[in-house]
Amino acid sequence: MTLLALVLGIFTVWAHAQDEWEATRSMAESQHEIVIMLIEKGEFDKAVEEARKIFYLPFPDGKDELLVTAARQVADALGHHDKHDLAGHVLDEALLVVTLPKQQAALYKEKGYHLKKLGKTDEAMACYRKALELEQKKK
Question: Is the pLDDT score of 59 beyond 60?
Answer without folding.
Answer: yes
